[in-house]
Design brief:
heterodimer, A: mainly alpha, 4 helices, 0% strand, B: mainly alpha, Hydantoin permease, two-stranded antiparallel sheet, globular
Chain lengths: 73, 362
């Protein structure tokens, strides 16, 4: 619970720091979409992790795809 | 242009040298000693030679494409959409993963040897905050900071070297080539992968040097300086603490500085020595994060890369916490990572071949 609150605070502080930039990029909606796309994905991962569930490491997929090739050598 | 700042050739050299030293300074002695044993210095020299060839090749690519950045090179080479897709994969699957490794390295180091009761999240947040602030301030600012750090690194390294001189045992590097050349070559391959293949990231920075044509010497000299420093520290580890201790330890350089003891007065200075590592890791992470932000901004045509700094920082923070479940997993994963890094690090060879087939690039 505490970790989730800290995570929300982190996300909130990021939005607060970048608040001025949103006004600057008001005309360029694409930039804002990219920004919120990355931030949204990151926030989902952070909240999922903070709820105590284990996120899978991306290395598992790398290992799964490369291990058969390496075993040939 | 996404970046308006310009750095000098000298600043570029310093950046390359400190980036090369990066995380390797603390880990490379054990990586090399695990296979090459007492022949660590031979493996290092072979690796450095190959690394210099690789760096020369990276520079030739930059020259061939009129000093464009990597995203522009890929777009020029493969066409707009395929180029963007390759660049996106490159930044997400290589640079992003590499950045999380570097961040996790500093977290693990602090947690293992210095601040054992501090949560790793706190270490990551504090370190990342400084790095992101550096990236937000821009290339010129963090490069000037790097220049300010350089004398401190030199002083600390000279102190480390001089204070360890009385403990050097030259018999530790004998016999030479006891197990033949094969383990030495295998060990030098690890040295090429980490850190020389990672220098491909400088293809994102070369366009912002004020005289890009003069970057060849700077790139090679910076790499030689950083690589030479790594070989020196690895050899020093073998000479002072021996082969077995170096190969077994996770952080042999830290253990090395623990042995400093002059007349029971000048001792316990390992935390000062860890300062070298904090600085070089900062430089490495700031360069990687900068390249990541700049690259993704280039891929998505975002006007200002600084807008993406904090969201990318958030992603780095989360993924660095889960990137490897334990250090045992990391040790098992190392050979796979070597292969993975070779695929991405040698991508410029593929670019070169495609550009040859397609004719004159610009």
């Amino acid at each position: 619970m505490v970790y989730t609150i800290i995570s929300l605070l982190i996300i909130g502080s990021i939005l607060l720091i970048d608040k001025r930039k949103f006004k600057k990029y008001k005309q360029s909606r694409k930039d804002i979409w990219v920004y919120f796309g990355i931030l949204g994905f990151g926030s989902c991962l952070l909240l999922y992790h903070s709820s105590g569930r284990t996120l899978p490491t991306p290395l598992i997929w790398i290992e799964a795809s490369l291990k058969p090739i390496i075993s040939i050598f | 242009m996404l970046e308006n700042g310009r750095i000098s050739v000298r600043q570029f050299t310093v950046l390359v040298a400190l980036y090369t030293v990066g995380t390797a300074i603390l880990i490379i002695p054990s990586v090399l000693a695990a296979k090459a044993m007492q022949d660590i210095w031979i493996a290092g020299l072979i690796g450095l030679g190959a690394g210099l060839v690789l760096v020369f090749f990276y520079w030739k690519i930059a020259e061939r494409f009129q000093y464009m950045n990597l995203v522009e090179i890929l777009e020029k080479c493969f066409g707009k959409w395929i180029g963007k897709a390759v660049a996106f994969s490159y930044f997400v699957f290589y640079l992003f993963i590499l950045s999380t490794f570097v961040l996790r390295d500093i977290g693990d180091f602090m947690l293992t040897v210095m601040m054992v009761e501090t949560p790793i999240e706190a270490i990551h947040i504090i370190f990342l905050a400084v790095v992101l602030y550096g990236v937000k301030l821009g290339l010129e600012t963090f490069t000037r900071t790097t220049e300010l750090f350089l004398p401190w690194i030199v002083i600390l390294f000279v102190v480390l070297f001089i204070t360890l001189l009385p403990q050097i045992e030259f018999t530790n590097i004998l016999p030479v080539m006891e197990n033949g050349i094969q383990p030495v070559l295998r060990s030098s391959l690890s040295f090429i992968v980490f850190p020389f293949l990672e220098l491909v990231v400088f293809l994102m920075i070369i366009p912002y040097v004020n005289e890009p044509k003069k970057t060849k010497k700077a790139f090679l000299f910076g790499t030689a300086l950083g690589g030479g420093l790594l070989i020196l520290i690895a050899t020093l580890s073998i000479l002072v603490i021996g082969v077995n201790e170096t190969a077994r330890s996770i952080y042999p350089t830290y253990d090395l500085s623990k042995t400093i003891n002059i007349r029971e007065f000048f001792q316990r200075v390992e935390a000062f020595m860890a300062l070298i590592w904090f600085i070089t890791v900062f430089v490495k992470l700031v360069v990687l994060t900068y390249a990541l932000c700049l690259g993704l901004a280039s891929v998505f045509n975002v006007q200002d890369y600084k807008l993406l700094t904090l969201p990318i920082g958030l992603m780095l923070y989360v993924v660095s916490l889960v990137i490897f479940p334990s250090s045992t997993y990391l040790i098992e994963f190392t050979p796979i990572y070597d292969f993975y890094a070779v695929i991405w690090g040698l991508m410029p060879v593929f670019i070169w071949l495609v550009s040859l087939v397609r004719g004159k690039p610009v």
